[in-house]
UniProtKB/TrEMBL annotation, chains A, B:
Leading EC class: oxidoreductase
Transmembrane segments: none
Residues bound to NADP(+): 9-16
Gene3D superfamilies documented for this protein: 3.30.70.260, Dihydrodipicolinate Reductase, domain 2, NAD(P)-binding Rossmann-like Domain
SUPFAM superfamilies: ACT-like, Glyceraldehyde-3-phosphate dehydrogenase-like, C-terminal domain, NAD(P)-binding Rossmann-fold domains
Record carries keyword Amino-acid biosynthesis: yes
Binding site for NADPH: 105
Pfam families: ACT (PF01842), Homoserine_dh (PF00742), NAD_binding_3 (PF03447)
Protein name: Homoserine dehydrogenase
Family: Belongs to the homoserine dehydrogenase family.
Its EC number(s): 1.1.1.3
Binding site for L-homoserine: 190
Amino acid sequence: MKNIRVGLLGIGTVGGGTFEVLRRNQDEIRRRAGSGIVITAVADLNVERARSIVGDDVQVVSDARQIIANPDIDVVIELIGGYGIARELVLEAIAAGKHVVTANKALLAVHGTEIFHAAAQKGVIVAYEAAVAGGIPIIKALREGLAANRIDWVAGIINGTTNFILSEMRDKGLSFAEVLTEAQRLGYAEADPTFDIEGVDAAHKITLMSAIAFGIPVQFDKAYVEGITQLHRPDIRYAEQLGYRIKLLGIAKRTAQGIELRVHPSLIPAKRLIASVEGAMNAVVVHGDAVGTTLHYGKGAGAEPTASAVIADLVDIARLQGADAVHQVPALAFQASSLTAASDNLPVLPMDDIVTGYYLRARVADEAGVLATITRILADAGISVDAMLQRESDEVSEFSENAPHKAQTDLIILTHDTREGTLNQALTQIQQLPSVLAPIVRIRKEELN
Amino acid sequence: MKNIRVGLLGIGTVGGGTFEVLRRNQDEIRRRAGSGIVITAVADLNVERARSIVGDDVQVVSDARQIIANPDIDVVIELIGGYGIARELVLEAIAAGKHVVTANKALLAVHGTEIFHAAAQKGVIVAYEAAVAGGIPIIKALREGLAANRIDWVAGIINGTTNFILSEMRDKGLSFAEVLTEAQRLGYAEADPTFDIEGVDAAHKITLMSAIAFGIPVQFDKAYVEGITQLHRPDIRYAEQLGYRIKLLGIAKRTAQGIELRVHPSLIPAKRLIASVEGAMNAVVVHGDAVGTTLHYGKGAGAEPTASAVIADLVDIARLQGADAVHQVPALAFQASSLTAASDNLPVLPMDDIVTGYYLRARVADEAGVLATITRILADAGISVDAMLQRESDEVSEFSENAPHKAQTDLIILTHDTREGTLNQALTQIQQLPSVLAPIVRIRKEELN
């Protein structure tokens, strides 16, 4: 079979890795794909750098549209990033009848509906394994490997930067700010880390997984997004003492009422395999009604792990490109005609309607009756307590980020599953008690079983 | 699109699970596959039981060949097991132009070359996700998701029965025989557990994974197979003290000399994620040159987890069946014309040529000079010691399975990577020393990093 000719838009870290792996493993890949896969043209604003990477046998241009217009190109890889020019180029490539491979989670989470619709109309493939969890073939697992299942929930550590920061905070007892600086120095966090530490990147990824898990459109605007910037050392320690670890999870869960779609720090039982995922590694847990729990672990970022996913998509396209649209794997796992509209019976739920357990920490005056008052408010709201921990001022001072006060104590409560709206009402009451000296810390808890 | 009509050969545990999941999730599966997937006929020697499971709308016959001969059937699921009649029926189904889905690892590990060749000639698909690691979509991950990679090695806990036994031996300090009895009572081990505990089942599975990882034929006859029946409690304890756990691993590794293909108990560092895989769960670690290390975890057996894999194959077939053979995913991951023959430069190596670390335990007389003599023999053979542990008779007696002898001590040595042939020669020398009182225990050690 003739070679698949690929045009690469943007040759930065991942683009360079993709070029290198395709060249290094070209024989292996040809033996798998049945045809060679060759990058024949590269577009990058920095033509000189691009030329230095790809050598003289590959066309290098500064204008991506020259590649899209080239009738010899079968597949376009978009590695530019962002929502702006990347969206235009992807839509133009589709219009030109090219298959598209992209690692751009932000683009697909926000404009996926438009892009997948355009691709379906044109009968081309838009593949995006690299957009979620780097080298882990989780899109393929959800879309094909677990296709027999009614997926109940997906929960993942899908941002390496924040997992690195949380691992370091726990291991070394450092504050968020201290570890962030260190992570930036080591290259684990970007100069502007906002998308990572505020949970936006994880939200893009869980939005994509929610779509293919449940057959709903991508709805990034409905996702609840909370990062790790407000996490404090004492809570990491208290969680540990209670048998939990704190991880930033992306969660998509199907309930009778609709879909929970949320990113936030979560307590998870230390004995779960995913609790031991440390450093910049990623892992996604999927629970299906037939298969039960599966876990998929690997590197979530980096040049070659991401290239591994980009090239897997190219191999899929090489295998499928002669097949008509009906025989292709649908971009969002479910046939386009079978996607459940946002307005149907699977709405993304407001956060008040989610149900989960909670970790609460109240810094209270060390005086009689406080505990009784707080547990009474919880009981009256129908919130049942799973575990409790009290740490006196001496112990508190060891952890305290502010100057300790002798008459203070930390009260830590784990609740059983509770509707978040109900919890919020109870917390408002508790917060107003004169004995409660600081804003109550509230972290959600996922049992993942 | 019209429904895919499936004939099921053998409706035991997995067959029943497949029927149930296909029925329960029929809407979900149709939305994914683009066409309905319906079991229209079942063959089972026990017609009455089959009828009680599938009801009146499904044809039930006792003769599997009636299903193979039925021109209305698109796909045959073989869940009979074994090498005999199953092989005949699979070959006949292929000859009749049916796609085949099977969970029969034994059949494919032994007769795979013949079967895949027949399928390629006929242009039909033989799919076998359920044959390895139950519900974990590891065949798809290796064959498609990681297609960009030169796979360096695959190592897996791929037999739930033995992992359950090892977990229990460690947790409860019980002997192999005690736990086996308990496992049989709980249904985790079969009445005749030979295939599981002797490593044969794991060897079938790692043989299949070696083929798709490296593009070589299935060569079960070349696999080294060692089970867990000779494992003793003290070694599990000593391994723990050295920071390792003992797991039965299936290992396929590419070296410059060829392929290592082996199943045996292995020490693995306790801090690796796979070391925490407990009970009857399975996990496969894959190392690719681009992606690095990935881990795939889930239930390795049971009616519905296995059904999940069987049905994923059916969905793949539904999506691909209109595509011609060129566009199908090749059964062994590499195009049939690109498989490396057994006689080529990737031979399966004899065990003398594998290179790994070792755990050694010698029960020796507690007298001066023994340690010096043993370490001298190792040093002369060029075998370097990574760690050492000596346990005096008092401690030994705590673990000892036989009556302790006061003048005995246990000497435990971890070696660095060593060629097995070299080690064996040194062990022969050590074993002949008069101070060595019992056969030396030798367990291989895998760092998996």
